[in-house]
């Protein structure tokens, strides 16, 4: 499958420089012992690493210079996320970047000036969009009602990334019968309203947040109908998680290939047997295809709302990358033999990530179902 009209794929100089610096940074800051040391931690990431990312300007790559960013665009976040995925460096970067994108697109609102400089400086922001575990659920369960103090909220959101450490929530709400987006500072949310949820990918943190009784000012309501903005967030989120999955698939492949070269059976490396060689070639092809789809999509997204070609490319990237990581993780566990099923084997980190990455922002079936109408309807 390929986009019908635009076949161009460009890897810019800025993306190349970001990729080089990100490779070195992630390799040094996110070794496997460091990843494992963070698994039982409350935050799930190293705050010092997060501040170093902010100091490098990563949190501002998609933010305009007027707000303290570098103005490189959302596509420049793709090589950063790919490198993070390859080294299992999990931080609130994707959610924070998506929130920054929405705030920057909020024309006619002073919310950009109020919040974007702080986000570029290291403030953690999170998306609160889900009422259930299914990204395809169209319901918006949080309602905003006019009150003397501004807006009174009722309802809850689930799977809110890094809710326990976030300083800002971007919440989808129903306001006077219309879907809207609302900025909610975490200071307005009681700590007891945040309940941690268990993620199958133990490198991540998420929670259920009950917004019932929370009050915010009317000025925190983003202008315009939220439907088009939510569509854009879903597509860009799918692209960024596809980039992360492609990076993780590459690392999983390297882990398995190294084991196949060092484990001996019947006097020879097990990687010399064709029954193991061929699946590893399939992993390589799937991973490289995913990277091609990801960077093609990155070349099509820009500051405007994604058009038909960009939407097709984002959906293709997510479908391919999700399945590439799932296949790589499955082969990693199988090829490590009995050890591969143990918690001590690093292969389980990748298959857990694969299970998460399949679902977040839609699985392969979800995106291919929508691709059918995009590519086949006249």
TrEMBL record:
Residues 13-122 form the Acyl-CoA dehydrogenase/oxidase N-terminal domain. Its cofactor is FAD. It holds the Pfam family Acyl-CoA_dh_N. Residues 236-371 form the Acyl-CoA dehydrogenase/oxidase C-terminal domain. InterPro entries: Acyl-CoA_Oxase/DH_mid-dom_sf, AcylCo_DH-like_C, AcylCo_DH/oxidase_C, AcylCoA_DH/ox_N, AcylCoA_DH/ox_N_sf, AcylCoA_DH/oxidase_NM_dom_sf. GO terms for molecular function: acyl-CoA dehydrogenase activity; flavin adenine dinucleotide binding. The keyword Oxidoreductase applies. Keywords: FAD, Flavoprotein, Oxidoreductase. Belongs to the acyl-CoA dehydrogenase family. PANTHER family: ACYL-COA DEHYDROGENASE (PTHR43884), ACYL-COA DEHYDROGENASE FADE28 (PTHR43884:SF20). This is Acyl-CoA dehydrogenase. The lineage of its organism: Bacteria, Pseudomonadati, Pseudomonadota, Gammaproteobacteria, Cellvibrionales.
């Amino acid at each position: 499958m390929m986009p019908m009209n635009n076949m161009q794929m460009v890897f810019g100089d800025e993306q190349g420089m970001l990729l080089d610096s990100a490779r070195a940074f992630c390799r040094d800051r996110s070794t496997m012992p460091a990843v494992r040391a963070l698994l039982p931690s409350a935050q799930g990431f190293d705050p010092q690493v997060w501040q170093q990312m902010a100091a490098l300007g990563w949190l501002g790559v998609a933010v305009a210079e007027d707000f303290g960013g570098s103005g490189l665009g959302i596509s420049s976040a793709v090589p950063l996320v790919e490198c993070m995925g390859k080294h299992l460096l999990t931080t609130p970067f994707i959610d924070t970047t998506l929130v920054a994108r929405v705030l920057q697109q909020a024309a006619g609102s002073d919310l950009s000036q109020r919040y974007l400089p702080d986000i570029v400086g290291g403030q953690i922001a999170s998306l609160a969009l889900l009422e259930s575990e299914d990204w395809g659920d169209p319901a918006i369960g949080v309602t905003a009602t006019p009150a003397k103090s501004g807006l009174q909220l009722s309802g809850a959101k689930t799977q809110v990334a890094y809710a326990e450490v976030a300083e800002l929530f971007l919440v989808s709400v129903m306001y006077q019968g219309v879907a809207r987006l609302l900025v909610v500072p975490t200071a307005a949310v009681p700590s007891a309203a945040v309940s941690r949820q268990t993620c199958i990918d133990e490198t991540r943190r998420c929670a259920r947040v009950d917004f019932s009784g929370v009050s915010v000012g009317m000025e925190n309501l983003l202008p315009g109908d939220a439907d088009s903005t939510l569509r854009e967030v879903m597509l860009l989120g799918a692209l960024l998680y596809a980039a992360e999955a492609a990076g993780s698939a590459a690392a999983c492949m390297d882990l398995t290939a190294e084991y196949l070269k060092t484990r001996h059976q019947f006097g020879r490396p097990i990687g010399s047997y064709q029954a193991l060689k061929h699946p590893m070639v399939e992993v390589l092809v799937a991973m490289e295809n995913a990277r091609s789809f990801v960077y093609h999509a990155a070349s099509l997204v820009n500051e405007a709302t994604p058009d038909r070609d960009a939407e097709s490319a984002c959906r293709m990237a997510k479908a391919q990358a999700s399945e590439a990581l799932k296949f790589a993780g499955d082969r990693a566990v199988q090829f490590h033999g009995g050890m591969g099923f143990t918690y001590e084997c690093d292969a389980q980190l990748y298959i857990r990530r694969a299970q998460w990455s399949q679902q977040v922002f839609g699985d392969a079936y979800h995106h291919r179902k929508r691709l059918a109408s995009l590519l086949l309807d006249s």
